[in-house]
Amino acid sequence: MGTTQLEAAPEPKYWHLKTVIGEALDSDFTVGEVLPNERDLAARFGVARATLRQALEQLELEGRLQRRRGVGTTVAPPRVGVDVSTTQHSWPGMGEDGWQSVDRAADAAPAAVARLLELAPGEQVHVVRRLRVTDGQTVAAELLYVPAGSVPALTDADAPDPVGTATHARGVLRELGRLALEGQDRSVELGSARADDAKELDRLPGAPVLVVTTRYLSAGRTAAVAVATYRADTCRLTFGDSGDLAMAS
Predict the structure, then answer these.
(1) What is the dihedral sign for C-alpha 180, 182, 188, 192?
(2) 105, β-bridge pairs
(3) Could you tell me the pTM of the whole model?
(4) pLDDT tens-digit readout, 105-140
(5) The domain 13-75 is classified under which CATH number: 3.40.50.1000, 1.10.10.10, 3.40.50.300, 3.40.630.30?
């Protein structure tokens, strides 16, 4: 980082400082590298430590920095690239999709999901829980809701009632993948982490998250619905050439 004093700027000083530090992260630092301590950084830029903290906090919120207990402030890895366009069709769990199956349960789908699946309120479905881990950090948690009618060949050994292991979760995915996928649609919205999501993602309850809901279509009906919750500081939204919405690094 340079030692030049900050010039007068119309925006708040901490915001200008955030921009300067962000440029330095791109050119002078590598992923995982520890930043100098606050006293040294404040002296380099000729700002008060309170101003520096505001800039660092903003960069942390944007996913550029990570504060690691016992280590200090480090440069965060690149944001996770996640394709949520509708041009690619594949069932969850097919190929290397970056997700790890955790477990399977039998439970009633939330009301909004039940409507998408055209199920009666309280009707039980297979719920497959999956996590996406990048650089040792959980960046997303997903709940996949699969009605029993979508996977009729699933055996009791594959999916015991009411709870199953990762093996049972993969059994649901395997049977789902046997169906002919006719299409899928997705929606993306900004939300707040619920208690369960926050625990999975190592965030505080209420932290900003991106919620991606995917509806999988087969035989003229909705065969499954996935609700994936992403840490907002690990993803960004971009629009591809085709106009589809995608999260990319």
Answers:
(1) negative
(2) 127, 163
(3) 0.72
(4) 999 999 999 999 999 988 999 999 999 887 777 889
(5) 1.10.10.10
